[in-house]
Amino acid sequence: MKNVKRTMMAAAISLVTAQVFAETDNVRLVVSSYKDSLTSEYGSVSQSSATNDVCVNTPALDAQWCVNGEIAKGNGHVVQSSVGQRTLDTRVVELESYGYSASFIAEKLRETGQFDEVVVDVPVTHSYSFTQTQPIKTFQDRYFGDSSEFPSGSNVYGAADLIGTPSGDNVDVLVLDSSFYDTDDVVYHPGSGRSFVTASGETPNDDYRPRDTTGCDGHGLSVAGIVGGTIDNGKGGDGVTNAVNIHPIRVMTCGEGYLSDVSRALLWADDGDGTLFSGDTSEASPYEGKVGIINISLSGYTGSPDSGDDAVTGCPIYMQEAINALKAKGWGITVGAGNNYGAQANEYSPANCEGVITVGALESSGDKASFSNAGDVTVAAHGVSMITSCGENDDNYCTVSGTSMASPLVAGIMAMVKQHTNADMTDIEVMLKATASKSNFGTECETMGCGEGLVDAKALLEAVMQQEDGELNTISFALNEGDECDVTWFVENFGQAVKLCELYSVKFMGGIDLDDTTYKLISVPKGQDLSTEENQTMIGEYESAKVVLRDIDAESFDYGVKMCSAGECGDVFEISTVDALPENKPVQCD
Question: In the record, which residues are listed under signal peptide (predicted)?
Fold first, then answer.
């Protein structure tokens, strides 16, 4: 293949300015309100069906901006449910600007108090660089190799060796992106492609391919290739795993779009029946896959509570609610931190949404890549000069850089572990952070923040397998951790003084300490539900993941651990107490 060098940096993200006057004739807003559905023997219905518009005057009093009253608080359409529930009703509206900015109009509509949120629809894009090249398989060693040899390596090779030939069902991976081309190297799941782009008059449909527009760069194809490009096909550009069903979901056109269309795709994946926003028309077929992993390699500026912006800041509620619904069903969601050269990741969405795995990018040295956003990041992975497919032709490969590529690397690793273990996504995400390492971080990561560390696929797989086997969180007799001669000597010389036979070794998460994390040890009467707070008695809260305790009663109680950070605690993980039962007491203690 002809080795043609060409490098491109996509346009930076458009920022919503605070100025009053706009340059376009129309503005695009997202309006959301919570609705409390009421239960009856016929199902649940909304509180009313009023349709009066909600309007505000322009400052000059010569025109009005109006929003359909169905979206206002307390109004809306029928909500089908067997029980009463609080739902979010969202609608995208386009209004004539009359010379005013979108942020100004959104503020005026918010001031009516009729809506829970009115925000400017966030422009999103990807920003990355690529160079067309002849693939060289050893390039992949930098990110697939062991971090002891390659400072930014995530040890994908090590995990693959542990797995061997994958067996069982593939994991569904949804790639929300733009510019998907059909190639032999990246094989999409049959019948899986969709588009949720609504700009320029498009309607959601089943055609994921680029529109008839020149200059599209194949970003979605490249991202999909990092996750699941064909391995060992003689061309290079291996993906992390081929035990996946890749779903190409177009939410941008040639790298530009709106955050609301990303949310539409998330709602589609959650509902499965094509339900999107209020007033939407959709020709997209329902989602027919299983719960899996979603990768979103794009970002848009929304600001944060600390950024000083006047507009509503942070993750919009229409995005957060869609993510919450997916997380409740067991989905994993990876997103790029953004490529704004060290900007704070929490000022860009969806990186600033709760429940996502926000991925920063590292260079080959193991330090932060210059372009990567930082700060409130979950984990980091290699993101510079990664080999992947990049164009319409089967032999088009590029070296590609960006958090856009670091994120699917992590998504692929999570899919690999999920496919082999079928573990709960909550367990995988906890272990992802617990097994990440900061040992190769340089000054940039140490000062700016690159999350919990570099992702380690092999360590993650081993930890999840331990969790599934009940070996990750354990309570055992402390003396059983030494060899027989040491135990005998300690008991004979110090046993009476410190009652060594009554000490128990407690390990949380394999004894791996997490930054800014404490461990709450709880007990419940034997056989009762660990997750029910009424059953729980807290034994203690510890900063270390490995402690030695007395007064453990494995015959009468079950034990669990909650990991807590910044005042919030996660779900309860069960602790194996088999090695703390009387029959496993050291023989020296009889």
Answer: 1-22
Enumerate the active-site residues: 182, 219, 404
**pLDDT given for residue 8 in this prediction:** 36
Q: In 3-state terms, what secondary structure has residue 120? A: strand
Residues 76, 82, 88: CA angle, nearest 5 degrees? 35
Q: State how far the Cα of 226 lies from the Cα of 185, in Å rounded to an integer.
A: 11
CA–CA–CA angle 514, 519, 520 (5° rounding) = 165
The dihedrals phi and psi of 513, each to the nearest 5 degrees, come to -75, 130
Q: How many Cβ atoms sit within 10 Å of the Cβ of residue 476?
A: 20
Q: What is the pLDDT of residue 493?
A: 54
pLDDT in tens, 198-254: 988 899 999 998 876 556 889 999 999 999 999 988 776 899 999 999 999 999 998
Q: How far apart are CA 136 and CA 486, in angstroms?
A: 53
How many residues does the structure list for the chain? 590
CATH architecture of residue range(s) 129-468: 3-Layer(aba) Sandwich (3.40)
Between 153 and 76, residue with greater pLDDT: 153
Q: What residue ranges do the domains of the chain occupy?
A: 26-121, 129-468, 474-589
Instruction: Check whether 10 has a pLDDT greater than 60.
Output: no
Angle at the Cα of 451 from the Cα atoms of 450 and 453, rounded to 5 degrees = 85
Q: How far is CA 66 from CA 30, 57, 262, 334, in A?
A: 13, 9, 25, 37
Chain-wide mean pLDDT for the chain?
Answer: 87
What class does CATH assign to 474-589?
mainly beta
